[in-house]
Write a structure and sequence with these properties.
two-stranded antiparallel sheet, PH-domain like, 14 helices
Length: about 425
């Protein structure tokens, strides 16, 4: 059977403990594998190691409580910080109830995104960028003529290929007489970086709202990346969101001085968040933003009291990895029983998928192989999230009230005081 149906059935069981309706009554079906469209041998969501017979009734749906409890147990599928927003995105058209076919579509899209990124990482194009050890490609654009990316500096503009990694933006320009020049814009260092949406046009004229502007203290003037397309600026908005996420995770790393496994785990969380964000966008053509984003570190930056979320995440998860790292650095004594230590959950998941974020390339599997995966974090993180979400709901209510009183002609300050 496949893991997708098993996890969904676990969610149904969480909501309805003791129910037997989901179990197969015909034992003959135990020998028949489930046939799924688009299933392929390399899928990350299939398993043949279990003989448990579970069948999901497609008419059944899952609520928020079950999804937020079960889904984060697999870090590829969901993250504790953003799982509420992911559920909202998946159920925005179904009244807050998750149907299996929507859940299945999301996981299929996530599987395709993973395989696509792995294909890019293994391509000759990736090798031409000479990435650092532990640096992973997250997105690429402009590599096809029908979807160009233009870089604007001053009044000059030229096409090229744009790549986002866990460390930087790379632009490989196509300029006559200059060859394929590659320029790196470092996102990991503290250089007063700013990235935001902006307008571009021919000869520097601000006409089209399809670009992002990037500037830092290391540049003499801002750089503009233009994503020309018909209709809404969806490509631009996507690149703006995921680039900000990379900047935010690197700020988190610098703030708490994360190194080695801690640093790799933080980057792994950001990578998985970006891939989930891409999967939702590709499958359902939506890209939640602000308080509803599914990007972990961007959400913490946007939420009121988001600094409390980051503090709780560090104190109750990342800081505990220090002990694990000290044990990993030493060989276990022969006269002592093997110990089980917590492990960076997201890093473990990515390493099993073939992604390597540790600079010591030959040690990733060795270090993680004898560790037990630790599911979940302490209640303090959940408490910080609940408080932050409560404040965000009050702010949204205040904004809605302000919009209403503008129409009715009432004083906005009075309305805000009543809400807050």
């Amino acid at each position: 059977m496949n893991l997708r149906r098993l996890m969904f059935d676990m969610m149904l069981a969480w909501e309805n403990p003791g129910s037997e309706e989901g179990l197969l009554k015909n034992n003959s079906t135990l020998c028949n594998p489930v046939e799924i469209e688009d299933e392929d041998e390399g899928s990350i969501f299939y398993t043949n190691s279990t003989s448990l017979a579970v069948q999901v009734n497609d008419m059944k749906t899952v609520g928020l409580s079950a999804f937020t409890r079960i889904a984060p147990s697999c870090p590829i599928i969901a993250d504790l910080v953003t799982v509420h927003n992911l559920f909202d995105a998946l159920t925005c058209s179904s009244g807050g109830r998750l149907h299996y076919f929507v859940y299945d579509k999301y996981l299929k899209s996530l599987d395709r995104v993973f395989r696509s990124i792995k294909g890019v990482m293994q391509s000759s194009l990736a090798s031409s960028f000479n990435l650092d050890a532990g640096e992973c490609i997250l997105a690429i654009d402009g590599d096809k003529p029908i979807h160009p990316v233009l870089q604007h500096i001053g009044i000059s503009a030229w096409p090229g290929t744009l790549i986002l990694t866990t460390h930087a933006l790379y632009f490989q320009s196509i300029r006559v007489g200059y060859g394929d020049k590659i320029v790196k814009y470092d996102l990991a260092t503290d250089s007063n970086q700013v990235i935001k949406r902006d307008f571009t046009g021919p000869l520097g004229v601000r006409l089209f709202d399809k670009a992002v502007m990037y500037k830092s203290s290391t540049l003499t003037e801002p750089i503009y990346f233009d994503f020309p397309e018909l209709g809404s600026p969806s490509r631009r908005n996507y690149w703006l969101a995921i680039t900000r996420e990379v900047m935010q995770v690197n700020r988190f790393i610098r703030k708490f001085n994360l190194e080695d496994i801690q640093r790799a785990e933080a980057l792994s969380k950001a990578i998985l968040g970006i891939l989930r964000y891409s999967a939702v966008k590709e499958a359902f053509h939506i890209a939640p933003s602000h308080f509803k984003t599914t990007l972990t570190f961007s959400l913490a930056e946007k939420l009121p009291k988001g600094d409390m979320v980051l503090e709780a995440l560090y104190n109750n998860y990342f800081q505990l990895l220090d002990t694990s790292l000290s044990h990993l650095a030493t060989e276990p004594s022969v006269d002592k029983a093997p110990q089980t230590h917590s492990v960076p959950f997201s890093l473990y998941a990515l390493s099993r998928m073939g992604f390597n974020l540790l600079k010591r390339k030959n040690e990733t599997e060795k270090e993680i192989s004898f560790c037990a995966v630790c599911v979940g974090v302490t209640k303090s993180l959940e408490a910080a999230l609940q408080e932050s979400f409560l404040y965000s709901e009050r702010i949204e209510a205040a904004r809605a009230t302000v919009d209403q009183v503008k129409v009715e002609g009432l004083d906005a300050n009075v309305a805000l005081m009543q809400v807050c």
